[in-house]
Amino acid sequence: MSRVATFDFHVTSECSQQCAYCWGPQGIPEVDTDTARAIITKIRAGGSRRIVFTGGDPLLRADLGSLIRHAAQQGLEVAVSTTGDRLTASFLDSYGAHIDLISLPLDGSTEEISRRTKEPGHLAAVMAALDLLESYPGIDVKVATPVTRHNVEDVPNIARLLDERAVRLPGRLFYNVFQAFPRSMSSEVAWSEMIVDDSAFDSLQQRVEATPHSYRINWLSHQTLDKLYAMIFPDGTLTVPVGAEFRNYGPFLEVGDIDALLANTEFDAPKHQLHAAGWSRPS
Q: How far is CA 33 from the centre of its chain?
């Protein structure tokens, strides 16, 4: 079994949002379609079972649909992590049959809270995306909330909002609650004004879990998030985030033995495998 169950393929740096806490790639050129397809093929050949198309917002990449179809044809589970404001019925009609999960960010239960970290109107866009996904029973949904000082008191309200949504979605719903992590490709983030400490994050978990929910909630502390991801950046390079750094190991296609390389890095394979087991395509 490969050390990496899931590769996060950041197919673009382009995004409609400018989230201060974001640790996706910024200002990195994209590989062409043929190279992207070769990367996908190698991911599957190495024994991984899942690919997450992410960014930026992958829906801003013109050939995303063809990459999704290619990944599915290779036998990979396919997830798409998008801001949600570009998701359309036309896209889902064309490629939804090849998608196992769509991930959407939700930073607040109200527009006033959401716009503290997202562009105006983002909450409405995510609600519209969830409305769309009610018509696609083959697609599971993950909602992700990065917890910051801007929304920590609102997360119980988001959970209640998802209680209402869960009964309307035909697929499974997962809720990932992240402790915002002091890592970004931007050097201008005022982390001291954003980070929620461990005590506040633990207290939040206790408050939310005091009420039963019909969907699974994954609590991801900054310790859990560290050394967890195997990322392929838009330029095709293999990257593992460690602490505040992005450890880059060169072009993914030029790595002979991915597992051997990662075995000599700080990538935490057991933690990664445990995290990946939290969601899998139903047999």
A: 22
Query: Distance of CA 275 to CAs 137, 158, 218, 228, Å?
Result: 24, 23, 9, 8
Q: What is the CATH number of the domain that holds 195?
A: 3.20.20.70
Question: What is the total count of domains within the chain?
Answer: 1
Distant-in-sequence, close-in-space partners of 233: CB < 8 Å, separation ≥ 6: 10, 25, 28, 239, 248
pLDDT tens by residue, 107-134: 999 999 999 999 999 999 999 999 999 9
The alpha carbon of residue 90 and the mean position of all alpha carbons in its chain are separated, in whole angstroms, by 22
With a CB cutoff of 8 Å and minimum separation 6, the contacts of 113 are 107, 150, 151, 154
Position 282 in a domain? no
Contacts of 170 (CB under 8 A, 6+ apart): 134, 136, 137
The CB-side HSE value for 273 (13 A sphere, CA atoms) comes to 9
216: tokens are 């699974």
In a domain, 283, yes or no: no
From the number of C-beta atoms within 10 Å of its C-beta (0-12, 13-18, 19+), residue 34 rates as: exposed
pLDDT one-digit tens code per residue, 194-212? 899 999 999 999 999 999 9
- Return the H-helix or E-strand segment holding 89: helix 89-95
Pairing outcome for strands 237-242 and 245-251: antiparallel
Q: Tokens representing 81?
A: 């992590």
List, for residues 72-106, the tens digit of each pLDDT value. Answer: 999 999 999 999 999 999 999 999 999 999 999 99
Answer yes or no: is 83 within a domain: yes
Closest CA to 243 of 257, 226, 229: 226
Per residue in 54-70, is it b (16+ CB within 10 Å) or e — as a string? bbbbbbbbeebeebbbb
Rounded to whole angstroms, the Cα distance separating 246 from 52 reads 18
The whole-angstrom separation of Cα 196 and Cα 179 is 7
